[in-house]
Amino acid sequence: MMEYQEGWIALFFLISCHLEEPSVPYGIDWEEKESAELLQMVQMGMKEIRRRGLHLSGPSSEVRITRAYRVFIGRKEVKLRPMAKSVLLLFLRHPEGIPLKDLADYQSELTAFYRRVSRSSDPGEMEARIARMLDLFNNEINVNIARVNRAVAALVDDASYYRIDGAAGHPKRIRLDRKRVIWEVERMDPS
Hints:
Helix content: 40-55%
Strand order of the largest sheet: 3-2-1-6
Largest sheet: 4 strands, mixed
Number of strands: 6
């Protein structure tokens, strides 16, 4: 339903931006055009709205983190490996974003998340994985951010609100308003 509403808004936007006469935009006689051509116009309008950075609506779903640290966008679970899930949870906890060069400052919090979601019981192995994640000369953080973003994109149409994003040298963050994030777990101490 939302997609149809956005389509009509996009069509109206496209027409109103280029109307010469109200009844004949672009010299089009609407009665002679087929539905496929109208659909193409709607798609062009939606593409133009996205190109201009306009948003017709906010994110469609809330994010919910269960007591078992399962992450849901709406009713769909975000399936991730333990380290990628730990990265997602860390970024959801910090709406201000995290500069990757400062990731080591978040080691205790990342470790706490990883302990809760990992299937490993070997503390040495867990510490080694966290150390690789925090190593700035290693690409591990970028690999896990990419995993999070792919998983999110597979679940929702407009993943831009839910993905971990940010320009090089600036904090990476998830744009979603934290009022739309529901933590069913109690506030976690990073110890």
